[in-house]
Specification:
Elements: H1 4-10, E1 16-21, E2 26-33, E3 46-49, H2 68-74, E4 79-83, E5 92-93, H3 108-127, E6 132-137, H4 139-150, E7 158-164, H5 176-194, H6 206-214, H7 223-232, H8 241-247, H9 257-269, H10 280-287, E8 304-308, H11 317-326, E9 330-335, H12 345-348, H13 352-371, H14 375-382
Parallel strand pairs: 3-4, 3-6, 6-7, 7-8, 8-9
Antiparallel strand pairs: 1-2, 2-4, 2-5
């Protein structure tokens, strides 16, 4: 199974590998598909951020002509793919071993508060750009909203954010598997802690070997496909089954039990808030109050374009509509024009390019054209 750099090299795209260290010591992998054309002062890089249990490979799985990273590169954009802490590509720390509980003592709050600032500042320093575009899927949107709500100065560094299935409010879950995980996450974490298990669903190369044996790609409705449908929503005719088969060789890619616990609290609490500790005394010690504080969405001034799916069994459309009503700088909220489109289809649907990606590309290219100086007007004035 090819890794992210190998997927890029396979199709002849230029590759750069970078590393950046967060303020709290996590070493993050950054992969760059550099623009084929010369950059100008008006060029803005693009940062792509994956979801929970996923990796940067999600934006490459469907190959050229379908995957978002390649499509952006084909348009001459400077594309950056980050792997968030704890996944298969970003498993180093300046002090802690990945075998230690200290390494895994984080949720997606720390990803937004520490990882993203380090990544954004690094990209802007390397490219000498003033701002960048941000594209996130699922948890990749969650960490963005954490960043811009808790460190509002970063709103000025992002020209536009594209949210694919934004995971901020998480009520009305239709997936029986995910609903069970959300309802039982506290007990699951307690069990894992007692057993000394410090991570959840780490990447295992043997998983792909097992999948090929019990769920070959030639079987369209295998037990593996049915399991994925129960997790993200069924779309047997619209999902690219080969891409679904391939992505199972990359995901799950690892997460902390604290990530899962924090997400489950969103599902139960119905509000976008920081992690709730088990006792009010601990909340008081951490936050200075008995209940965890809610993230201030009104502090987010980045222009945001959102896409959601009607058949998303993890992020129900009602959650997206609620979020849209609370964002002060919403540009648009777009429902995917396929009633069977599901949560994972944002990465692997057969028609994801025409349904979603082309709209993002058009918007980014329009912004790029508007940022360029009007040379023709200058020439006319000189006559």
């Amino acid at each position: 199974m090819l890794e992210t750099p190998e997927l890029i090299q396979k199709y002849g795209y230029p590759l750069e590998r970078h590393e950046v260290t967060s303020e709290d010591g996590y070493v993050l992998a950054l992969t760059r598909i550099a623009a084929s054309t010369e950059q100008t002062e008006h060029s803005m890089p693009l940062l792509l951020v994956h979801g929970m249990f996923a990796s940067s490979a999600d934006f490459l799985i469907a190959g050229p002509n379908n995957s978002l990273a390649y499509l952006l590169a084909d348009e001459g954009h400077d594309v950056w793919l980050v792997d968030m802490r704890g996944n298969r590509y970003s498993r180093r720390h300046t002090r802690f071993s990945t075998d230690s509980p200290e390494y895994w003592n984080y949720s997606w709050h720390e990803m937004g508060y520490y990882d993203l600032p380090a990544v954004i500042d690094y990209i802007l320093q390397v490219t000498t750009a003033r701002r960048l575009h941000y594209i996130g899927h699922s948890q990749g949107t969650t960490v963005f909203f954490v960043l811009t709500a808790t460190r509002p100065e970063y709103n000025e560094k992002i020209v536009r954010m594209y949210a694919l299935s934004p995971a901020v409010y998480a009520r009305h879950i239709r997936s029986p598997i995910f609903r069970w995980l959300a309802e039982n996450a506290p007990a699951i974490k307690k069990f894992l802690d007692s057993a000394g298990v410090v991570q959840v669903l780490p990447h295992n190369p043997d998983q792909y070997v097992l999948q090929k044996a019990i769920c070959p790609a030639c079987v369209p409705r295998s037990i593996c496909s049915l399991f994925v449908e129960q997790l993200v929503g069924p779309n047997p005719n619209g999902t690219d089954k080969l891409a679904q088969h391939v992505i199972a060789g990359h995901n799950p890619s690892g997460a902390s039990s604290k990530q899962l616990l924090h997400l489950s609290q969103l599902c139960r609490a119905g509000s976008f808030q920081q992690l709730a500790y088990q006792g009010k005394e601990q909340n008081l010690a951490v936050y200075g109050r008995e209940e965890p504080p809610a993230y201030n969405l009104t502090a987010i001034t980045t222009p945001i374009v959102m896409f959601y799916a009607l058949n998303d069994w993890i992020i129900d459309p009602r959650n997206v509509i609620r979020l849209a009503e609370e964002l002060p700088a919403l540009v648009s909220v777009n429902v995917v024009e396929d009633r069977n489109f599901n949560h994972l289809d944002f990465m692997i649907a057969k028609r994801v390019r025409s349904l979603v990606y082309d709209k993002i590309l058009d918007d980014i290219n329009q912004i790029r054209r508007s940022e360029k100086p009007n040379h023709r007007k200058s020439d006319t004035n000189s006559l």
